[in-house]
Amino acid sequence: MAARPALARRLGLGDAVVIGLGSMVGAGVFAVWAPAAHAAGSGVLIGLVIAAVVAYCNAVSSAQLAAVYPVSGGTYVYGRERLGEWWGFAAGWCFVIGKTASCAAMALTFATYVVPGGGWLRRLVALLAVAGLAAVNYRGVTRTARLTRILVSCTLVVLALVLVLLFRAESHREVPVLAEASVYGVLQAAGLLFFAFAGYARIATMGEEVRDPRRTIPRAITIALFLAIGIYLLIGVALLRVLDPATTTAPLAEAVGVAWAEPVVRIGAALASLGALLALIAGVGRTTLAMARNQDLPTWLAAVHPRFQVPHHAELALAVVVGVLVLTTDLRGVIGFSSFGVLLYYAIANASAFT
């Protein structure tokens, strides 16, 4: 029996950290504050801390498992190896379905910032974003890492500008009066904010392409998560001192208080959406590859490109499905569906680590 084609180990520690950070500091840092503040009021930062602690616990589980099983697939592989084939099958489907919906959500988020007013033009722009980033992924994981590095760098520059403007704005703007916090509201906000940190799993799903994975993956997950937590805390503290995020759908753009800065922030949000979408396409493609190898998906999807060494059939199929979603669904629906899949996926990840 011929050996199955393997992916190339081309990613170093810096590449893995950037891919994880690009997944976490995506569109969420620009959009998550409004629903979280609406739920928690003045307790939104407490919700953020709770979400960060839960994310850290999940990250430790994922890092330990990824070091033991450094192959593509993430929790799909961990569930099969630690709990049984059915649990791996369930985790794989939760991830593929949930994160395919996330791909559509990020594409639609990008189009929302780029095309005001909505309509079919917005959906067409989302479709073009999916096609363009799928083409980048098709050309090899090093190109994916390189473009992710550029997008993350641009996003961080915009966030640094936002922080400067927010802290300057404190001197001449009244501190907003936020709604009173409740335990339920804080926990609800923590649930919303947790999904902003869920991108560290992308590093684990790409374990077959990381050099020295037993050492690199745990370090990359930890570094990327702590960087993301620090960024969210800084943005959250600065934002809440000048604006009640529950009063707007684009809190960072409105809070800067400078006319020329608002379009810059919107561009940053669009680039962040692209970075998150790029990492999502890479992660879903690798989990699809792992499932196809075990015949939990059609074996046609297990093909690895002989030159670029990427799961090209899986990535092409994903691009087609996401394209259909962006043409037929709305942002709220795909986010809700994605959240459902992610919750089940991480439950199986933690059960696997518990063994």
Features:
mainly alpha, 355 residues, globular, 15 helices, 0% strand
Written account of the structure:
This protein has helices spanning 13-24, 28-31, 33-40, 44-68, 75-82, 85-114, 120-138, 141-169, 183-194, 201-205, 213-240, 251-255, 261-293, 312-328, 331-354. The radius of gyration is 20 Å and the shape is globular. With 355 residues, the chain is mainly α.
Apparent shape: globular
Q: Averaging pLDDT over every residue, what do you get? A: 84
Find the count of extended strands (DSSP E, 2+ residues).
0
Spell the H/E element sequence. HHHHHHHHHHHHHHH
Q: What would you report as the Rg, rounded to the nearest angstrom?
A: 20 Å
Classify the secondary structure makeup into a structural class: mainly alpha
Portion in strands:
under 5%
Number of helical elements:
15
Low-confidence stretches: none
Q: Terminal Cα separation, in Å?
A: 33 Å
**Helix content range of the residues, please?**
over 70%
Largest beta-sheet characterization: none
